[in-house]
Amino acid sequence: MVRFIGRRLALMVPTLVLVSILVFGLAEVLPGNLGRSILGPYATQQQVNILNHQLGVDKPLYKRYGIWFEHFVTGHWGTSLELGSPVLPTVMRALGNSLLLAGFALVIIVPTSILVGVFAGLRRDSFFDRLITVSSLSMTVIPEFVSGVILIVVFAVSLHWLPVSAMPPQGAPFIERFYYLILPAIPLMFLELGYIGRMARAGTVQVLSMPYARTAVLKGLPRRRIVFNHVLRNALVPTVTVIGSQVGWLIGGLVVIEYLFVYPGIGNMMVNAAQFHDVPLLEACVLMVAVLYMFSNLVADIVVALLSPRVRMAS
Amino acid sequence: MDGGEFAKEEYGQHLVEQVLKGKMTRRQLLIRASVVGLSATATAKLLAACGSSGGGASVASPSASASLPPVVLGGTLKAVIPPPLKALDPVTIYDQGGIVLVYQICEYLIDLTNENALTPKLAVSWTPNAKGDQWTFKLREGVTFNDGSPFEAADVVATFDRILNPKSGSGALAALGGILSPGNTVAVDTHTVQFNLDKPFADFPYLVSASSYNTAILPRNYDGNFLKKPVGTGAWMLKSYVTNQRAVMVKNPHYWGKDAQGRQLPYLDEVIYVFVTDTAAANLQLQSGAVDVQPQTVFQGGQAVLSDPNLRVDVYPSSGIRELAFNVNKTPWQDKNMRQAVAYCLDRPAINKALYGGRSNLGYDTFWEPTVFPGSPTPPVRAQDYAKAKQLLSAAGHPNGVDVTLTVSNYLENPAYAQLIQAMCKPAGINVKINEMSYNAFYAGSNTTTPWLNAPMDIVEWGSRPTPGVYAQAMLLPSSAWSSSHWNNQEFANLFSQYESTTDEATRFNLASKLSAIQQDETPIVVAFFISQLRTQKKNVYNIQGPGSFYFNVNQAYMTK
Fold it and tell me: Which of B92, B284, B410, B484 to mutate to test the interface with A (most CBs of A within 10 A)?
């Protein structure tokens, strides 16, 4: 197990280097340039050229990458040219916000989805199973900008029950942040419920058809014991893997939710940095999300190993 | 240099005569008088001399036109604006969020009234010489920057020398280029500044007013880091700024401004600017009551806000346009018949209705549009006329129709406008293929490669400009930096040079008539409408001033309970 974790951690380093090279290259092929982004469409070409030269953007790509890499690994993440603030604290603040939203959403989504999925699986083909399957699938196909707008119009604009934005006013106590996150977490729950819930249902159905589950029933074990000791443990293996793969998206991919609920997360920061050609900011954002994505997958794999002795032994 | 004094009184009389002869309205008189720096008292006397001729004197602010409740001092106003696109710096700002915020902290020599007329701010008066190539500005005394340093002529000189230096990257350089050179802004004494122009320029005061937003007056020792030290003479001071979230402004207790009753300005204690990128999300902020005002409500998608009974909408005529440019160097646009054919395909009232709910002013392919720029000659109306369009197509050698490509960025209402053009051109046989791209892709590249200056036909969005001259200077002259049409008409250029150098209203009017006729006939660009701007606020918010969305003046704004 220790070797498995060590190997996975060691693999992260070349992966991150590769990601950083890819991001640098992709930023290069995006239309526009940094000087034009800073000075705007009304500056003359001469002014843009002067600024690009000052910023060193006219140097060859490999030289710029070398300079950036050296600075990055020595902890000098530089200043964002788009925002005029140091990259490290800026990215960390946005990442903190994203983690809070993702964490809050997961706390709601995971137990609900598993509960619903397992419940449906245990009552396969019943009315409840059909109802849960169809409604969760329907919710999954509603894009978050549609469900988000409807939720805002109903709960914030008409009923005034919940705030319209996801950030409390300055100086509000930390605990109040969760109240502001309720509305943006709901569209995410809609999206994930169908996905994670169906995995849990499929896992449960599959395990229940296994000979050992049937044996347990025939042995006359209490239903609760069968579910907790035999079914859940095995049925949740694929579910945990899916949750692990969703964490990356929940942290870095919530661009629409962040826009709609005016939430300063890392998703929008990445999009804006890419459009602005602010490479130091873009690299920092992407690498942070990549690290978290890899970690969440690693954690998911460890949990799977703990749940399933076969995987543990194989690793 | 001609040292002769400009005779303001004589000019005033000349304006009165123009009104009495019916060649000018009282509103036009007001605006022209402000350009040459006639004082408010002198202008009031002129209006009195006009008697009842020339129609209404002014277009009052929509909120000011209603009877206002008594002023309430104090309170916090919350406004929703787009986040500044980059770190705030008055020298290089170009976007709405950045301009709105700088306008609170900094001031200009001249400000704009609701009617786009000029009004004294850091300059108390301005006078041209007889030739119009030397302008003397008297500065306001007793003004200090919010760091305590005094505001003097040296700060004005430093501000203009800074923006005229190409290394500063200021967008104002393109507007002032060929008119004011570095080193030609001179401090005569601590409170008098002289601008020695490269050529006579009648509309020069506009170039140093708030409408030229990079000319905000900064202290002589400004170091370029505005967010670290947000220094200015304005009524507001930046208390906190959180990137992509909000800016909080508190009132400057030492601000020089007082209202007509002698009360200290501003009335409000604090203004919070909430940054929201998405227009739908911004509208929802306003509708939910989370914010009090939205300086710019976009009609497309904003219908629910505009019809909300809890909100009041101010409509401001502005000169913002969507330029439909024909690149005259590319086929088939070399032939003016082709360009005119497109112009006759458009049903302008229908476009206005579809894009702006019918609130905008119609345009007829010339910048001299009297509904938007008072004092302009009235151009002939161009109604939709397919018979004429087909005739023009035949004359251009395309009797069986022609295929063209329209390049457009997926920004604001541009794609919707492109689709309307496509649908309206089809019956005449002009098959428009739309090439839609991202905003960044549209403006990417150098002057010789960027789509916005090199596509055969494209739509370019322009914010409000204060005079037809500023528009023509930017895009219709052989020397224009931003000409998407690449139109090169020497007669137009020569007449324009005369137009910009004369202060005589009658001559200017005659020249404007000729310029307008040439522009419309040649149709290098289609100007189908001048977009009215919408500002939406809660019904307890009063007296927000300023024309359009950039110049969001809350110095005399207040909120009742």
Answer: B284
> Which residues have CB under 8 Å from B319's CB, separation 6+?
B116, B372, B373, B464, B465, B466, B471, B530
**Interface with chain A: mutation pick from B91, B287, B440, highest number of A CBs within 10 Å:** B440
Task: Give the gap in angstroms from C-alpha A47 to the nearest C-alpha of chain B.
Answer: 5
Residue B261 touches chain A, beta carbons under 8 Å: no
Q: Over the range B513-539, which residues count as b (16 or more CB within 10 Å of their CB) and which as e?
A: ebbbebbbebbbbbbbbbbbbbbbbbe
How far apart (Å, rounded) are the C-alpha atoms in residues A113 and B234? Answer: 55
Segment B479-517, tens digit of pLDDT: 888 899 999 999 999 999 999 988 788 899 999 999 999
Looking at B396-522, list the stretches that DSSP marks H as alpha helix, in order from N- to C-terminal side: 414-425, 439-443, 451-454, 468-475, 490-501, 505-522
| B94 has a chain A CB within 8 A of its CB | yes
Q: Model confidence over B375-427: pLDDT tens digits? A: 789 999 999 999 999 999 999 999 999 999 999 998 889 999 999 999 999 99
Q: How far apart are CA B136 and CA B367, in angstroms?
A: 29
CA-based nearest distance B473→chain A, Å? 13
Global confidence as pTM: 0.88
User: What are A55's two structure tokens?
Assistant: 């910023």
CA distance B282 to A261: 10
User: At A283, which amino acid appears?
Assistant: E
* ipTM confidence: 0.86
